[in-house]
Amino acid sequence: MTWSRTDLTGAVAGGRTLEVVCDESGSDGENLTTGNTDVFAHASVHLSVESASGHMREIRSRIRSPAEEYKANHLLREKHRSVLVWFLGTAGPIHGTAHVHLTEKPFFVVDRVMALLTDEDPAAALALHRQGRTLFGAEPWREFLESSNEVLRTRRNEETDSPVDAFFRTVDALRGAPAVEPVAGILDLLARARPRADAHRARIDDSPELFPVLDPLIPAIGHTAAYWRRSGLPVTLVHDRQNMLTDERIARIEQEARLAGLRLVAARSDPRVLLADFLAGAARKIASDELGGRGDAELTTLLRPYVGASSIWGDERSWAALSPHTCHSGNRSP
């Protein structure tokens, strides 16, 4: 991250906060297994409105689209690849002043179900995630992920049977297949976790406004706040409007993420949000391609400096390409 000593000194002297502007890409709410994307990206930028306006004029001049509002998909079109390369590169508008937190959705589901139903450390979720599909096959593993999603999510499909019953049926089915340690032991722990699963569903029934444990936006905001707090300044986040960010939830996020403030704006009203949208959309697509074995080496290399080391990612091969560091052991969300 590049900081201006003059700007930081003035901010401290003037009692100002560091204002960071955010947007996301790949949101399916709490539906992480049957949605449209396998990656969630939360991007943030720190620059002035004036600078962002100038950068947007430059992007428009390079893309030359008649669209009234530019979105990330403009940059992702193959005919505009040179603009995307420039945007992410060292000569681009956000180099040294932007960050993106990535979430691999399937791993997030496994991590959350392990955290809620067991007392195991994050290494157990990582082991189960990395070995599950290979050990059990694509279809049984898909059923496990979907049932895990349903048992945790705040809202559920009322047309289906009990999400708790369905989850433990899938766990029993996996336990009936040959497995090696530590996966066999992890499944045994999950099989004994019925009381915790029932208690979680009871909390949801009693508290409709319960914080959703499966929406990756909430931990992403926390990781984003932690990243920018490294400046030593109080951090205020300006975020594109999100339906799940109610006043009550914003108040809780501000407290837990140690934010000086969190306010919502319409994307069209702030060019900085548009730049964050470009980065989030590009990061989601590049990371998803890498996860799926379709990675573009040039674009992955350009994205890497922006990727947060605390990203919630379990796939070993793709993280080796995306990580800003050389090693990674899996990250659990707060």
UniProtKB/TrEMBL annotation:
Protein name (Swiss-Prot/TrEMBL): DUF3800 domain-containing protein
Species: Streptomyces graminofaciens
Origin organism lineage: Bacteria, Bacillati, Actinomycetota, Actinomycetes, Kitasatosporales
